[in-house]
């Protein structure tokens, strides 16, 4: 079966050629039947949420607390929640950027069955994706779960207890409550990984947006799509691990590259 890349060929576009790159991307999007976006922290920097690598970024200031430490130590849990509430305003203030809105436009046009994200900020849902069409590989930090009974807990209630007592509450079942993110040392969500693989196996255009593609096993998903014959487009302002394999690399700002695809 011919794929959308046959008529376009392999091209690496750089900043100076942004207009040409956008034209190429438009051709690929028009030719594609099933587009699967895969997003990383870079799509949310325009929304005010720092990515992993930016100097002074929220994630670089503190050594991450591994899952086993969180479960074993009340002090570790208190520290984890202290940090979470420090960045709470940043998450609460964040609005979807041009990248989020462009992907939502493609979704509403019926071209995108679902989206895969490494992000934990809930901004794809805020921008209009149905929650069941967002495959979260690293979970979601805007709510919490009991590690025993899987009951969902909202952050404002946890924060109230934390500020009153200096400690996070436990679940009514006695279980430990944790943000619904995947911590270092915690198992990847099996159902989400399977669904991401299925999406990668069944698309003709795969858009990797704002990911350095160094965090495994998530980074294996674009590779899978490429191996299964999808056209691979990478949009990231810095080089990534897989630029050599891509059919089109737009090494530019995500908002500038995807802004033209926002439906009026
Ligand atoms: P990363 O920080 O490793 O890579 C982000 C990439 O985006 C970088 O290469 C950077 O150059 C690029 N970038 C940043 N802003 C850009 C812009 N405006 N235009 C174009 N490119 C831009 O992110 P990652 O690959 O997602 O891995 C970090 C991990 O940390 C993720 O798995 C995620 O779970 C977590 N994280 C999540 C968030 C979030 O939810 N918003 C933020 C930080 C970290
Ligand atoms: Zn519970």
Whole-number radius of gyration?
A: 19 Å
**Largest β sheet strand count, sense and barrel closure:** 7 strands, parallel
- By CATH reckoning, the class of the largest domain would read Alpha Beta
* Number of helical segments with 4 or more residues: 11
From the N-terminal CA to the C-terminal CA, the straight-line distance is: 33 Å
Helix content: 25-40%
Order of helices and strands: EHEHHHHHEHEEEHEHEHEEH
Shape: elongated
Question: Could you say what the CATH topology of the largest domain is called?
Answer: Rossmann fold
**CATH architecture grouping of the largest domain:** 3-Layer(aba) Sandwich
The low-pLDDT segments are 1-8
Question: Which structural category fits the helices and strands?
Answer: alpha/beta
Small molecules (ligands, ions, cofactors) in the structure: nicotinamide-adenine-dinucleotide, zinc ion
What do we call the CATH homologous superfamily of the largest domain?
A: TPP-binding domain
Strand proportion: 15-25%
**Structural domains: how many:** 2
Mean pLDDT reading: 92
Number of strand elements: 10
């Amino acid at each position: 079966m011919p794929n959308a890349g046959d008529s376009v060929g392999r091209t690496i576009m750089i900043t100076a050629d942004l207009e040409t790159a956008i034209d190429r991307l438009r051709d690929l999007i028009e030719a594609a039947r099933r587009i699967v976006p895969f997003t990383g922290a870079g799509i949310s920097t325009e929304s005010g949420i720092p990515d992993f690598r930016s100097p002074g970024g929220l994630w670089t200031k503190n050594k991450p607390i591994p899952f086993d430490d969180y479960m074993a130590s009340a002090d570790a849990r208190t520290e984890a929640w202290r940090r979470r509430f420090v960045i709470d305003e940043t998450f609460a203030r964040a609005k979807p950027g041009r990248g989020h809105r462009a992907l939502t436009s493609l979704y509403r046009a019926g071209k995108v069955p679902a989206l895969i994200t490494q992000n934990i900020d809930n901004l794809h849902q805020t921008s209009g994706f149905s929650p069941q069409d967002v495959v979260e590989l690293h979970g979601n930090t805007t709510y919490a779960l009991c590690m025993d009974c899987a009951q969902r807990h909202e952050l404002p209630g946890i924060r109230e207890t934390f500020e009153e007592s200096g400690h996070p509450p436990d679940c009514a079942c006695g279980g430990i409550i944790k943000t619904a993110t995947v911590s270092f040392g915690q198992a990847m969500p099996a159902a989400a990984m399977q669904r991401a693989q299925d999406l990668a196996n069944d698309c003709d255009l795969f858009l990797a947006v704002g990911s350095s593609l160094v965090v495994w096993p998530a980074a294996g998903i674009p590779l899978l799509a490429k191996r299964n014959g999808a056209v691979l487009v990478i949009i990231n302002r810095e080089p990534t691990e897989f630029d050599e394999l891509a059919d089109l690399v737009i090494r530019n700002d995500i908002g500038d590259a995807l802004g033209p695809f926002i439906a009026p």
